[in-house]
């Protein structure tokens, strides 16, 4: 079995065709939910998308944001963080506190607007010491940060303590949150694209490829890393804020969920770390997979085992991500798999 | 004063378990440059194995140590040889992801087999101890400390005084040079990981006697192993012993000095120590290796 | 001619060992200065101190009148000092052209992405890599990787270029080609400091030479004189050869091509 879209003229045409198909499908998928509105009802249109499917779409959009955000630091800059969920949680909590009737009691829009700010500030604060670490140390230190922040939050009454916070429930707002989350996803992808084409983005990639060389050609590595970290934090926080309102509930186990943490990493890697569409592809594929697994059994254990196996498969067989086969230089064949295993194995 | 002494003794005893937890982890990290995120899961697997032997055959937990060690050794060898060896030259991040995946699978398999009820291993001498000058020393914890130190010594002797140990150290120092002098890398890698797994199993057996276990109880131990290694320093068994005992002391004394601290704070404390050490003295108290 | 780079009493210790001890010399604007010395003499440490990778424990380094001590590497690069590494450090997943372009984006150049690629093409032309610019780095030979390293440093528009053993590992033909490249680069107006072991290169292209030994300055002057200096020969080859060198014609026996 062999499948490739090499960067030849023919390959580029094929890639453009695929992209077009993807965009058309995307537009259709995003318009279909409108059939569940009252206006569609009066026009006699059939309801194409039910509530459960709306939830799935919204979740996919959320993970597009999270995976893209992780990709900025982990994929482009090469600093694989194991604690980005901390930013998600901080954003969710910020929004929940801001809109809570017993706390700041500000309008919902303010909640969403402020959701990226606290995580970004936190990222700058902890980024300065943490980003001096590399490899394993950075990964575990960020993991520890996420765990520690979650613990701290759980013990502060103003933040709801162990019970959590309950933002006001919005009736019939499924569509609103879907489109809010999709907007956030669009922002995430646009930001990634802007970064990839900017001097800043080249600086990040240079840091990933060889940080010492990057320094001596004039890249301010500390500033670059911290800014990337802050942008990732802001995006993750935004997703968190919207999530808190959508879910009408946030607590430590949700906001700092290690499940979410590993999922966003796997999505970015499976899709293609360091690329523009990798995280998007990974979010779609993995979330659909998870929904299928979750649907077939009511035991979460099987889904977790599936996730673990998928991690192993990704790392062993698809380390550069699906995008690599869809327009990179790799061919999906046994020979390729054997070759890449030989390169990374001993 | 006696209270302080009691806390110090308890801290050292608790530290003993941390030594057992960290020795295998440090070996695998130091030689293979693998931070094994499935370490906690292997520990808890050892704990469950001990419990099962105790519940089914009434085998004393300390007598089942060899069995647990052998089983985990075999598991570790296979895991490394078949899976981890294939990504060992890939960027570090991939081994982290792979071991995390193994962690997920292991923990959830345990959940399937044993459900999430808490189990504990309570041999006849569980509650008793000896009193030395007003300080109570529980037998079990004393035995656990003894076993942990024995394991550390055994690993050190293996590394420094046997041919296998020399091969392991050679591979850790320079993979290509080791290959050139005829060392079978795949085997030595698998062997090293297996020893690490066996140590984890032993640590699990010890833990099953000192606390109630549930499949997810292994998670904190991975982070704590990491902190102990960072605290003591990577590269020498002695450093891990110092790190483990110190960590036990800090945790125990910390809990007495700030009574309001719940169990969840253990992680936060561990993390705080980690960040402090990495910022102030990255090579750890006795470390040889470069921190990055 | 004004001194572009000025070192005064530069000292750097690692643990108890002084890698550099009171090093003092100037680099004039527009010259090619060679820095030689046996292995362990402190040559790379010297480079690292100038480029900001290490911070000297004592002494002063000034570049065009600006003190360098304590500046971060990226600041030094922005002031106009470029350097290469002994073991090349390319950006492995990029093409040759992209590697050079990144240099043009940063350093003293700081061109916007639109113009950086054109600048990269110019630089690649200068070092003789123009025909390979679309190749991925992984497919390059060692001499080409070294050229790329120089190209990337050049793209940052340095006034001073520090080359760390750029000839190491090259055969005789490749050394000649690299020598041509160094002359071309120098011709474009860049002052060069060349750390080298290959004496043929030092004699062939350097106007002045500085000799380091155990971190200290041993000799300074024109290549031919310095290489005949018995102290220098002794440092490299031992006493026996030093005595012989006293009566040698132009270069000490065995000191040529000591790489």
Quick summary of this structure?
The complex is a heterotrimer of chains A (346), B (292) and C (259). By secondary structure, chain B is mostly helical.
Principal-axes shape call of chain C: globular
Uncertain runs of chain B: none
Largest interface: A-B, 45 and 48 residues
- Quote the distance from N terminus to C terminus of chain B: 42 Å
Domain count of chain B, please report it.
1
CATH superfamily of the largest domain in chain C: P-loop containing nucleotide triphosphate hydrolases
Order of strands in the sheet with the most strands of chain C?
6-7-8-3-9-10
Kindly report the average pLDDT value of chain B. 89
Report the sheet with the most strands of chain B, covering strand number, pairing sense and barrel closure: 2 strands, antiparallel
Order of strands in the sheet with most strands of chain B: 1-2
Helix content of chain B: over 70%
- Helix and strand sequence of chain C: EEEHEEHEHHHEHEHEEHHH
Determine and state the CATH class of the largest domain in chain C. Answer: Alpha Beta
Supply the number of structural domains of chain C. 2
- Kindly provide the radius of gyration of chain C, computed on alpha-carbon positions and rounded to a whole number of angstroms: 18 Å
How large is the share of residues in beta strands of chain C? 15-25%
Principal-axes geometry of chain B comes out as: globular
Number of strands of chain B: 2
Strand content of chain B: under 5%
Rg of chain B over CA atoms, rounded to whole Å, is 19 Å
Mind sketching the topology for me?
The complex is a heterotrimer of chains A (346), B (292) and C (259).
Chain A: H1 9-31, H2 38-43, H3 51-76, H4 85-99, H5 108-114, H6 117-130, H7 135-154, H8 174-196, H9 199-209, H10 211-216, H11 221-247, H12 252-255, H13 258-271, H14 278-296, H15 300-317, H16 334-344
Helix pairs in contact in A: 3-8, 3-11, 3-13, 3-14, 4-5, 4-6, 4-7, 4-11, 5-11, 6-11, 8-11, 9-11, 13-14, 13-15
Chain B: H1 2-32, H2 39-57, H3 65-82, H4 92-114, E1 129-132, E2 135-138, H5 139-161, H6 163-173, H7 175-180, H8 185-210, H9 219-232, H10 237-257, H11 265-280
Antiparallel strand pairs in B: 1-2
Helix pairs in contact in B: 1-5, 1-8, 1-9, 1-10, 2-3, 2-4, 2-8, 2-9, 3-8, 5-6, 5-8, 6-8, 9-10, 9-11
Chain C: E1 3-14, E2 17-28, E3 32-36, H1 43-51, E4 58-63, E5 66-67, H2 73-79, E6 81-83, H3 96-105, H4 113-127, H5 142-155, E7 160-164, H6 172-187, E8 191-195, H7 199-205, E9 208-213, E10 216-221, H8 223-228, H9 230-237, H10 239-245
Parallel strand pairs in C: 3-8, 3-9, 6-7, 7-8
Antiparallel strand pairs in C: 1-2, 1-4, 4-5, 9-10
Helix pairs in contact in C: 3-4, 3-5, 4-5, 9-10
């Amino acid at each position: 079995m062999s499948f490739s879209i090499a960067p030849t003229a023919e390959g580029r045409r094929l890639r453009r065709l695929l992209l077009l198909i993807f965009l058309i499908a995307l537009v259709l998928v995003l318009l279909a939910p409108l059939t569940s509105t009252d206006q569609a009802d009066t026009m006699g249109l059939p309801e194409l998308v039910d509530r459960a499917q709306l939830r799935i779409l919204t979740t996919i959009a959320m993970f597009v944001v999270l995976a893209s955000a992780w990709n900025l630091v982990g994929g482009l800059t090469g600093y694989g963080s194991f604690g980005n969920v901390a930013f998600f949680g901080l954003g969710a909590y910020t929004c929940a506190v801001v809109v809570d009737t017993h706390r700041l009691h500000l309008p919902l829009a303010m909640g969403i607007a402020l959701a990226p700010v606290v995580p970004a500030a936190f990222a700058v604060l902890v980024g300065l010491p943490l980003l001096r670490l590399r490899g394993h140390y950075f990964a575990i230190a960020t993991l520890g940060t996420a765990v520690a922040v979650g613990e701290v939050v759980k013990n502060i009454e103003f933040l709801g303590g162990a019970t959590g916070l309950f933002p006001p429930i919005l009736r019939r707002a499924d569509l609103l949150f879907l489109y809010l989350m999709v907007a956030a996803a669009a922002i995430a992808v646009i930001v990634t694209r802007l970064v990839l084409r900017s001097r800043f983005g080249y600086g990040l990639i240079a840091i990933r490829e060889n940080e010492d060389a990057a320094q001596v050609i004039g890249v301010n590595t500390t500033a670059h890393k911290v800014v990337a970290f802050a942008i990732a934090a802001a995006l993750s926080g935004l997703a968190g804020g919207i999530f808190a309102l959508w879910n009408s509930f946030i607590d430590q186990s949700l906001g700092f969920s290690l499940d979410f943490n590993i999922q966003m990493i796997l999505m970015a890697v499976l899709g293609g770390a360091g690329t523009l569409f990798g995280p998007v592809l990974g979010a779609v594929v993995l979330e659909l997979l998870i929904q299928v697994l979750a649907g077939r059994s009511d035991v979460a254990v099987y889904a977790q085992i599936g996730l673990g196996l998928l991690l192993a498969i990704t790392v062993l067989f698809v380390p550069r991500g699906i995008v690599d086969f869809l327009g990179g230089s790799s061919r999906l064949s046994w020979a390729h798999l054997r070759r890449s295993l030989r390169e990374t194995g001993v | 004063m006696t209270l302080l002494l009691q806390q110090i003794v308890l801290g050292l005893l608790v530290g003993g378990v941390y030594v057992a937890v960290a020795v295998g982890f440090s070996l695998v990290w130091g030689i293979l440059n693998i931070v094994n995120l499935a370490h906690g899961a292997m520990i808890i697997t050892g704990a469950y194995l001990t419990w099962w032997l105790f519940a089914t055959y009434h085998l004393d937990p300390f007598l089942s140590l060899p069995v647990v060690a052998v089983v985990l050794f075999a598991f570790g060898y296979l895991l490394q040889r078949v899976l981890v060896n294939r990504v060992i030259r890939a960027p570090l991040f991939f081994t982290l992801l792979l071991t995390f995946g193994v962690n997920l699978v292991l923990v959830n398999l345990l959940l399937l087999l044993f459900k999430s009820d808490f189990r504990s291993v309570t041999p006849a001498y569980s509650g008793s101890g000896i009193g030395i000058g007003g300080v109570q020393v529980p037998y079990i914890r004393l035995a656990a400390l003894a076993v942990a130190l024995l394991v550390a010594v055994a690993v050190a002797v293996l590394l420094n005084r046997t041919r296998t140990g020399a091969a392991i150290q050679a591979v850790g120092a320079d993979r290509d040079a080791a290959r050139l002098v005829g060392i079978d890398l795949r085997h030595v890698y698998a062997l090293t990981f297996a020893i690490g797994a066996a140590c984890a199993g032993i640590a699990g057996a010890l833990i099953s006697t000192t606390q109630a276990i549930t499949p997810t109880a292994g998670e904190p131990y991975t982070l704590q192993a990491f902190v102990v290694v960072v605290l003591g320093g990577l590269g020498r068994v002695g450093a891990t012993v110092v790190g483990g005992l110190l960590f036990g002391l800090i945790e125990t004394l910390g809990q007495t000095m700030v009574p309001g601290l719940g169990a969840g704070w253990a992680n936060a404390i561990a993390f705080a120590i980690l960040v402090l050490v990495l910022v102030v003295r990255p090579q750890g108290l006795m470390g040889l290796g470069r921190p990055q | 001619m004004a001194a572009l780079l000025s070192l005064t009493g530069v000292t750097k210790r690692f643990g108890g060992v002084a890698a550099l001890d009171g090093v003092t010399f100037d680099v004039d604007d527009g010259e090619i200065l060679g820095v030689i010395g046996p292995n362990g003499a402190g040559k790379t440490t010297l480079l690292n101190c100038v480029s900001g990778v290490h911070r000297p424990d004592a002494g002063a380094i000034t570049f065009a009148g600006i003190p360098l001590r304590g500046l971060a590497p990226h600041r030094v690069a922005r002031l106009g000092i470029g350097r290469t590494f002994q073991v090349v450090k390319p950006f492995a997943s990029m093409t040759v052209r992209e590697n050079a372009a990144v240099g043009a984006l940063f350093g003293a150049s700081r061109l916007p992405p639109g113009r950086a690629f054109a600048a990269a093409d110019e630089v690649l032309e200068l070092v003789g890599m123009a025909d390979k610019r679309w190749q991925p780095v992984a497919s390059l030979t060692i001499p080409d990787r070294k050229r790329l390293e120089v190209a990337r440093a050049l793209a940052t528009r340095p006034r001073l270029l520090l080359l760390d053993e750029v000839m190491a590992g090259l055969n005789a033909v490749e050394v000649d080609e690299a020598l041509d490249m160094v002359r071309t680069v120098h011709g474009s107006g860049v002052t060069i400091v060349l750390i080298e072991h290959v004496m043929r290169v030092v004699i062939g292209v350097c106007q002045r030479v500085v000799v380091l030994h155990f971190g200290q300055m041993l000799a300074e002057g024109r290549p031919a004189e310095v290489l005949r200096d018995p102290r220098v020969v002794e440092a490299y080859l031992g006493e026996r050869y030093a005595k012989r060198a006293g009566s040698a014609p132009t270069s000490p026996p065995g000191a040529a091509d000591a790489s």
